[in-house]
Amino acid sequence: MTALVRAELLKLRTVRLPLWLLLTTLALVTLGVLATALTAGLEGAPLQRDDPALLARSVASAAVGNVVVLVLGILTLTQEFRFGTATPSFLVTPRRSRVLVAKLIAIAVTGLGFALVSAALAVGLSAVLLPLRGGVVTWDRTVLEVLLGVVLLMVLYGPIGIAVGALVRNQIAAVVGSLAWIFVVEQLLVALLPAVGRWTPGGASSAVLQLGD
Description:
The protein is mainly α and 213 residues long. It has one domain. It contains ten helices and no strands. The protein is elongated. The mean pLDDT is 87.
């Protein structure tokens, strides 16, 4: 099993997709922190500059990487079916469950790496930009809990992507369907049926990040 995991990690290191998706994640995190810093204190804004939760909410911008890691998980598996590279893996290791478990572990480790880099960027930018905008930077337990939540979610969303890719082998359908669920279906459920919406992956993520308070 260790050899299989190493092989899957090697695959992820030798293709450009994870790097591009990591850069995309960092760009989105930067935009999220900037949006928090620039809108805090504006009339009608949900956060004021003296809000003790301002730093925690800004750091939570790192959670945008969940969706990116989910897409990475989907593409990691569906690309193998699309280009036929899954066949050699299954020939070498006939027990497909072992190959899938190795992929799950490898993508979880990759998600951890995404999470640590994203969280570090969110913390660094928040610590610099919020004071420049007159925001209060409160380092408390909530910030730590949000950071732990970001790490937990990114570690989990990658394997979820692998699972989606295993169920829906068509790459476009898997990615588009997942994004439609996250950005359309879940949002409608939260708005129209909040009791149901809170049990969706997005609702659970908000609870982990304490964004529903």
